[in-house]
Amino acid sequence: MATRLYCRDCCETNRVPPDHKDHKICNLDAIDQEVRTELITLTQKLQDAVDRFKKMSKSLNACRCSLTVASQTTSEEVDKRVATICREVKKLGESMKNEIIKMREQHIQEVTETKMDTDSEIQLLESTVRISNDIIKDNSTLSLLDILPVVRESVDRCSDEFCSLPVSDHLVLRFGDIDLDSLKEAIGELEAKKSSTFVTSFHVNECMSDTFYYSNDYNSTGLDNLHWCVGVRHNELMFSLCVSLKLKKRGEKDTQACRASYTLTLVNRLEDAKSFVKEAEGVLFRPGDDYSLCCLNVDWNQLFDSTNGFLLNDKFEVVTTIAINELME
User: Fold this and answer.
1) I need a surface site. Which of 173, 212, 244, 257 has the fewest CB within 10 A?
2) Which Gene3D superfamilies match (predicted)?
3) What is the dihedral angle through the alpha carbons of 223, 226, 231, 235, rounded to the nearest 10 degrees?
4) φ, ψ for residue 297 (rounded to 5)?
5) What is each CA distance from 319 to 136, 274, 278, in whole angstroms?
6) Mean pLDDT value across the chain
7) Quick one: average pLDDT of 232-240?
8) 84-109 pLDDT, tens digit each
9) Hey, how many other C-beta atoms are within 10 angstroms of the C-beta on 232?
10) What does the alpha-carbon distance between residue 192 and residue 320 come to, in Å, rounded to a whole number?
């Protein structure tokens, strides 16, 4: 049987020696282990890449869900802010209407008092006219002389100025332009914060201890290259699962402390609305500082009840979203 050969330069095999002058020719059987080892190594690298991409795909899916939740939350905050502004505007409107009522009562009171004075004057003048007419019909000169000053005084009192119609204030509302820019400013300004989302899976056996079991590091490359990890433990005092977020310290080089907003979500696989969520704004994180842990606590029995939807094959997932607010010196 002819020896099988392999040309390393051309990557070709032949049963007879090929005419490959100056090429590296070797026995095909002799390189079997070499090629097999290389293939095993490369295949493992590919499998590692597949695992990384799967992990990235899961994080991207969590990020998509996080964006949806954040958008819904922000929309609800807009609705609440608009409702608050509407309440304040309504209060202002009620205040203006109360002022209108107050001014109306004041003006009506002034007109009423003037009318009462006018009616009294009418009665007095009518009485003077009646007496004067009776005296005119009488032949007594003395009576004429007695009434004449009274009539003169009454006539002087009834000048055109006295009888002029009163001037009253009729309230009208002068409208101004609605300043949309001011309304937008009152509602708030939209701000896009860069955030990083990652998914961590834990086995129930990893959280049985009262000390924290931490995940691998997650490098938030787009967030100033900080490294984070998620920890879980059994809080025996509260009989709960405690999920924490921690900023890792990296080697001898000091890692900057930071203020960050975060969301920790213990995923309910059956219904998103039943997932446990812990959120906080502007929390101070110091690298390697256990006292800066931010925890989500979940009832232990509720977690381990398989009907509740948190466990799958004795594993549960935590979705973490981090947005850096400020890097500290």
Assistant:
1) 173
2) Apoptosis, Tumor Necrosis Factor Receptor Associated Protein 2, Chain A
3) -90
4) -110, 130
5) 110, 14, 11
6) 81
7) 87
8) 989 998 999 999 999 989 988 888 88
9) 25
10) 18
* Residue in the block written with tokens 């095999």: 13
Residues 179 and 168: their CA atoms lie apart, in Å, by 33
Sign of the alpha-carbon dihedral angle for 105, 107, 111, 114:
positive
Is residue 299 packed enough to be buried (19+ CB in 10 Å), middle (13-18) or exposed (0-12)? middle
Name the region of 265 (left: φ>0; alpha: ψ -120 to 50; beta: rest): beta
Average pLDDT of the segment spanning 279-283: 84
CA 60 to chain centre: 22
pLDDT above 90 as % of the chain: 7
Sheet holding 5-7, edge to edge: 12-14, 5-7, 25-27
- Residue tagged 């008092």 (tokens): 113
Tokens of 178: 């609605």
Give the per-residue SS3 of the chain: CCCCEEECCCCEEECCCCCCCCCCEEECHHHHHHHHHHHHHHHHHHHHHHHHHHHHHHHHHHHHHHHHHHHHHHHHHHHHHHHHHHHHHHHHHHHHHHHHHHHHHHHHHHHHHHHHHHHHHHHHHHHHHHHHHHHHHCCCHHHHHHHHHHHHHHHHHCCCCCCCCCCCCCCCCCCCCCCHHHHHHHHCCCCCCCEEEEEEEEEHHHHCCCCCEECCCEEECCCCCEEEEEEEEEECCCCEEEEEEEECCCCCCCCCCEEEEEEEEECCCCCHHHCEEEEEEEEEECCCCHHHCEEEEEEHHHHHCHHHCCCECCEEEEEEEEEEEEECC
pTM for the structure as a whole: 0.52
> Can you tell me which residue has the tokens 């202002």?
92
Residue labelled with tokens 């004449």: 148
Are the CB atoms for 265 and 245 separated by under 8 Å?
A: no
Residue 220, both tokens = 């938030």
Q: Residue 317: name the closest of 59, 113, 67 by CA.
A: 59
